[in-house]
């Protein structure tokens, strides 16, 4: 309950918080399924689990990167008339990260659409190679499911976290900077 009240103080919607909690629980359940599968597959269950854990973790990391790129909030800057500004030094928010995020997002979507037909073949090749390393060729389906599941979970967890936390943190930082700038102007005018 303390966590919920703290997060509500931050201005987070309980609906988004619930979604985030459900995604984290889903992540835990998926890791449990991998553990159960690796235990039931062979006598080398630790090796199978370690391999599947690495596949899942790397897929989750890819999903995290994509979720962060798609979740970076956009800064809306107000337009001011330069003729009305009299020797006042003003600073604008640096939007380099947003521009890089937009550029990478467009490239990923473009390349993904062009190479969509090859994604299935790439997944099959990856799962076949990992299944050979595990020593169980029937593991291809669980490997493909792990890759897809953990990419999706990583994307949504990081996307929601980025949208919920970073947007609020950036807004608070901008408000504080504006207050400091106004205070400096007020002190300079005295």
UniProtKB/TrEMBL annotation:
Keywords: Membrane, Transmembrane, Transmembrane helix. It comes from Candidatus Electronema aureum. This is Uncharacterized protein. The keyword Membrane applies. The lineage of its organism: Bacteria, Pseudomonadati, Thermodesulfobacteriota, Desulfobulbia, Desulfobulbales. The chain crosses the membrane at residues 12-37, 49-72, 142-160.
């Amino acid at each position: 309950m303390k966590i919920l009240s703290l997060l509500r103080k931050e201005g987070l919607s309980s609906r988004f918080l619930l979604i985030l909690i459900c995604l984290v629980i889903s992540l835990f359940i998926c890791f449990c399924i991998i553990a159960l599968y690796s235990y039931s597959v062979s006598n080398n269950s630790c090796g199978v689990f370690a391999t599947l854990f690495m596949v899942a973790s790397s897929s989750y990391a890819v999903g995290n990167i994509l979720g962060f790129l798609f979740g970076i909030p956009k800064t809306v800057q107000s337009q001011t008339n330069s003729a009305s500004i009299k020797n006042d030094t003003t600073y604008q928010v640096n939007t380099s990260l947003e521009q890089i995020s937009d550029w990478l997002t467009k490239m990923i979507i473009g390349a993904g659409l062009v190479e969509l037909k090859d994604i299935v073949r790439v997944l099959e090749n990856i799962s076949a190679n990992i299944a050979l390393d595990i020593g169980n060729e029937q593991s291809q389906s669980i490997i493909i499911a792990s890759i897809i599941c953990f990419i999706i979970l990583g994307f949504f967890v990081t996307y929601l976290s980025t949208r919920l936390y970073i947007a609020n943190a950036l807004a608070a930082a901008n408000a504080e900077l504006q207050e400091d700038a106004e205070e400096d102007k007020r002190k300079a005018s005295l």
